[in-house]
Specification:
Oligomer: single chain
Strand content: 15-25%
Number of strands: 7
CATH class of the largest domain: Alpha Beta
Mean pLDDT: 81
Low-confidence stretches: 2-29
Helix content: 25-40%
Number of helices: 7
Length: 238
C-alpha cells in the first residue's frame, strides 16, 4: 500500500489525532526547483504538494493519504470492529495499519516488499506474501483465522497497458485466494481493484463465498485514478 515512489516516501512519527477526511481550499504550490528530477517525479511531487489529503495526513500523523481511503470504507461498511485480528497485505508505509489499530483492532499482521517502520500493536514483515512460507508465517503470527484481510496491493507499472493489467489482476487474484484460504467465517475482505479490469470471474468467486460483495470508490481516491475497492462481507467459510 504505497502511495509514493520508494525514493520519495517520508515517514510520519507524530501519532494520529483524528480520523476526519482532509480539508479543501489549499492554494496551488509549485516546485521551487526541478533539478535532477525526472518529469514524472516532478509531476508526482507537485501533485503531492497540492493534495489536501496529503497535507491532512501529515497534520494528523497518518503515514499516508491512503489512511483516509480505509476510514471512508469503514465508515460506509463497518469493516473494522473492536477486538478484530487483521492481516494487511501490501501494508507499506503503514497508514492502513494505523487506522485499523486506531479503530480498535486487537492485533495487525502486515507484510510488504518494502520496509515499514514499527507500529505498536502490529507485527510487520518485509517479505513477499505470495511465498507460501511467508503466508504460513503470517498465519502463525495471527494464532488463528483473521477477522479481516486488507489488501491495498499495487504492482509497479511498466507503462505497457496489457502487461500492467495482467500484473494487477494477478495480485488481486492472489490476495483473494489468501482471503478465501484463511479468513474466519463471518469475516471481511477489502481489496484494491481497477475500473475496467476483467474482474467478473473474481467477483463471481467472491459472491459465492461472501454474503455481500460491493464496489466502492472513496472520495479520497484521486479523481483521475481508476482504482476502486472490492468490499466483501460475511465470509461463508470453505
Amino acid at each position: 500500500m504505497n502511495d509514493t515512489p520508494d525514493n520519495e516516501r517520508r515517514r510520519m512519527v507524530k501519532p494520529p489525532t483524528s480520523g476526519k477526511a482532509a480539508g479543501r481550499g489549499i492554494g496551488h504550490t509549485k516546485l521551487k526547483t526541478a533539478k535532477d528530477r525526472t518529469t514524472s517525479s516532478q509531476k508526482w511531487l507537485e501533485r503531492q504538494l497540492n493534495d489536501p489529503y496529503v497535507a491532512q495526513a501529515k497534520a494528523e500523523g497518518w503515514r499516508s493519504r491512503a489512511a483516509f481511503k480505509l476510514m471512508e470504507i469503514d465508515d460506509r461498511f463497518h469493516v473494522l470492529k473492536r477486538g478484530n485480528r487483521i492481516v494487511d497485505l501490501g501494508c507499506a508505509p503503514g497508514g492502513w495499519v494505523q487506522v485499523a489499530l486506531k479503530r480498535g483492532a486487537a492485533f495487525v499482521a502486515g507484510v510488504d516488499l518494502l520496509p515499514v517502520d514499527p507500529i505498536p500493536g502490529a507485527e510487520l514483515l518485509q517479505a513477499d506474501f505470495t511465498d507460501p512460507a511467508v503466508s504460513r508465517q503470517l498465519m502463525d503470527l495471527m494464532h488463528g483465522a483473521p477477522d479481516v484481510i486488507l489488501s491495498d496491493l499495487a504492482h509497479n507499472t511498466v507503462g505497457h497497458k496489457q502487461t500492467d493489467h495482467l500484473k494487477i489482476m494477478g495480485l488481486l487474484e492472489m490476495a483473494s485466494d489468501f482471503a478465501l484460504d484463511n479468513l474466519k467465517p463471518g469475516g471481511a475482505f477489502v481489496a484494491k481493484a481497477f475500473q475496467g479490469g476483467e474482474t467478473e470471474h473474481l467477483l463471481l468467486k467472491l459472491k459465492l463465498s461472501f454474503d455481500t460483495v460491493k464496489h466502492f470508490k472513496p472520495k479520497s481516491s484521486r479523481a483521475d485514478s481508476s482504482e476502486i475497492y472490492i468490499v466483501a462481507l460475511g465470509y461463508k467459510g470453505q
